[in-house]
Amino acid sequence: MVPITYYLLLAAALFCMGMFGVLVRTNALVVFMCVELMLNAVNLTFLAFARMHGDGIGHVSAFFVIAVAAAEAAIGLAIVIAVFRSRGSVNVDDIRTMKH
Amino acid sequence: MNLPNLTLADFLPLLPAIIMVVAASVLLLSEVFLSATASRGYQAVLTVVAAAASGAVAVGLMFEPPQEVFLGFGVLDPFSSFLTLVVSVGLGLAALSAVGFLRKRGAERGEFYALMLFASAGMSLLAMSTEFITIFVNIEILSIATYALTAYLRRGTRPSEAGFKYFILGAFSSAILLYGTALLYGATGTTKLNDMVIPLQQALHGNPALVYVGAVLIAAGFAFKVAAVPFHMWTPDVYEGAPTPVTALMSAGVKAAAFASLVRVFLTVGKGMDPKLPLMLFATLALLTMVAGNLMAIPQRNVKRMLAYSSIAHAGYLLLGVAALFVAAPGESFRVLSASSLSGGTPLDVARSDALRGILYYLLAYTFSAAGAFAMVSALERREDEEKGTAWDLERFAGLAQRRPGYAFAMAAFMLSLGGIPPTVGFMSKLLIFQAAIDVGLVGLTIVAVLSSAAGAYYYLRVVVYMFMHPVPEGAQPLERNWGTEAALVISTVAVVLLGILPGHVTDWLAQAGTLFGQ
């Protein structure tokens, strides 16, 4: 059996990749995908720990996270569409009208 | 699997949130039967009535003994009921100031108020949650509704930009917080705060890295939500770009609920750690937030943006209060005793519960002052100026005392209160927090707080100077009046002045409200 530590390391790596992506990528959709990657890394962590503890809390938590991520995707994509309609671009660098 | 046998009485603690959700559903459903031109005046009234009803129920629940609800997924204690009251106040004032705002833009729809109510229900439940997944779900309930509200006005570039920034950084911070909870779950095997204390201490001996990394990630997630420096970048843009009533709700309700949850989580998670660690963490955040928030607000001529930076500074004063909760004598763990058991406590116990009282009073004070100030901003702004970004310029306030003395007086009261100048509620609440911080021995930090709040008085008083001493600009458009905005202004002015003059009753009552479950 693969040790729990490997799962945790994989999840940590995915989480860091997602975090890095949110901070450096410029396409709004890619940034959004990176947030999803972070949430899925959390899911993997929850599941690995659930196996370790041998209880159901981690499994249930992962389902809640998936449900919430779906709701977030719905509202997030709607906002990205609103951004695209108002400026014809989803580049994060273009979204900076307010600067003083 | 044994399912809990719930009775109707188990749902009573959730009544404030249930009222809000039912009102929101009624608003959403009624929208189906309305034609595009039908009168929608009742929607704001229904929202305000729901807010008043939940506030009243919360006041009633405040006298219930602290108890677990739903198997420890949440608690009902005076602390959570007080926070529900603060949220209801913020919701009511924001809904009142939305009446005129939406009518001027032809954007009056049931969804707007429904989203406000859903967000408030999430805030109220967040203050009660004591289980990490429940906390996460409630944070998302309030955040997702607020993202939608921020981008609600689809025309124009600003709201969608603000909505996008808020969404990305909000989702990012939620993910960080969630990762922290996953690590704590791994270390302790539970996600319930009330079950966590003993496994947490075992984990601190066996595997401290998981606990510390988890706690830091959770703190970072909350720091985003309360807009603490260095996690504040989104605040000015989002507060400026969002519709003004939504900004009022964000600055009042979202912040209060996030602070409540932060306090609740860290009073448990910090147990067993060296008390210096949470103290250092919150003291550093408080220092950076107070100083940077005030410094960045000083050059702002845009009043709405200035209020955004000022809300960062106020988060800093609140964090000073939070830091004061974690001061402990050597060998002692911090605890916040309830009012009834306080007589047997040490002076440090008394000071710590004073700090908690101070935080609660400050949240109420800030809700009234900020919601009032944003109601005023929304009364003066005009849609045509929004794209140019001049809708919130200081010039809008010039000569207001001659045009509308009542408005000018109300705004002056809010500015004095935000600046912490007597005889307003802002002064009393700052006094409580600063005094508690000195009593626990955070003298240096309190001196910085006093100095930075003195610097803050400059930009608040500048608004007052513009209103009372500058002439009315030529070609100024006549001001439209609206019953909703004026009601919000009257209510918040009366509260700001009365709570500042007669704080005695309220602080006695707050001693009761500072009772947390399990402390």
TrEMBL record, chain A:
User: Reaction(s) catalyzed by this protein?
Assistant: a quinone + NADH + 5 H(+)(in) = a quinol + NAD(+) + 4 H(+)(out)
Q: Which GO terms describe its cellular component?
A: NADH dehydrogenase complex; plasma membrane
Any matching Pfam family: Oxidored_q2
Give the transmembrane ranges.
6-24, 29-50, 62-84
Q: Which UniProt keywords apply?
A: Cell membrane, Membrane, NAD, Oxidoreductase, Quinone, Translocase, Transmembrane, Transmembrane helix, Transport, Ubiquinone
UniProt GO MF annotations: NADH dehydrogenase (quinone) (non-electrogenic) activity; quinone binding
HAMAP family per UniProt: NDH1_NuoK
Compartment(s) where it occurs, according to its Swiss-Prot or TrEMBL record: Cell membrane; Membrane
Task: Kindly provide the name given to this protein in its UniProt entry.
Answer: NADH-quinone oxidoreductase subunit K
Q: What does this protein do?
A: NDH-1 shuttles electrons from NADH, via FMN and iron-sulfur (Fe-S) centers, to quinones in the respiratory chain. The immediate electron acceptor for the enzyme in this species is believed to be ubiquinone. Couples the redox reaction to proton translocation (for every two electrons transferred, four hydrogen ions are translocated across the cytoplasmic membrane), and thus conserves the redox energy in a proton gradient.
Describe its partners and assembly state.
Answer: NDH-1 is composed of 14 different subunits. Subunits NuoA, H, J, K, L, M, N constitute the membrane sector of the complex.
Q: Look up and give the organism this protein is from.
A: Corallococcus terminator
Q: Does the keyword Acetylation apply?
A: no
User: How would you classify this enzyme at the top EC level?
Assistant: translocase
Entry EC no(s): 7.1.1.-
**Family the entry assigns:** Belongs to the complex I subunit 4L family.
Q: Which GO terms describe its biological process?
A: ATP synthesis coupled electron transport
Membrane topology classification: Multi-pass membrane protein
From TrEMBL, chain B:
Which InterPro entries is this protein grouped with? NADH-Q_OxRdtase_suN/2, ND/Mrp_TM
A single GO BP term for this record reads:
ATP synthesis coupled electron transport
UniProt entry tagged with the keyword NAD: yes
The enzyme's main class, written as a single word, is translocase
A Pfam family reported for this protein in Swiss-Prot or TrEMBL: Proton_antipo_M
Domain NADH:quinone oxidoreductase/Mrp antiporter transmembrane spans what residues? 129-324, 353-453
Keyword annotations: Cell membrane, Membrane, NAD, Quinone, Translocase, Transmembrane, Transmembrane helix, Transport, Ubiquinone
**Membrane-spanning segments:** 12-34, 41-62, 82-100, 112-129, 135-154, 166-189, 209-234, 246-267, 279-299, 306-329, 359-380, 406-425, 431-461, 482-502
Catalytic activity, per the record?
Answer: a quinone + NADH + 5 H(+)(in) = a quinol + NAD(+) + 4 H(+)(out)
Task: Output the Gene Ontology terms for molecular function.
Answer: NADH dehydrogenase (quinone) (non-electrogenic) activity; NADH dehydrogenase (ubiquinone) activity; quinone binding
Q: What is its EC number?
A: 7.1.1.-
Per UniProt, subunit arrangement is: NDH-1 is composed of 14 different subunits. Subunits NuoA, H, J, K, L, M, N constitute the membrane sector of the complex.
User: What PANTHER family is this protein classified in?
Assistant: NADH DEHYDROGENASE (PTHR22773)
What the record says about family reads: Belongs to the complex I subunit 2 family.
What protein name applies here? NADH-quinone oxidoreductase subunit N
* Organism of provenance: Corallococcus terminator
Q: Which gene encodes it?
A: nuoN
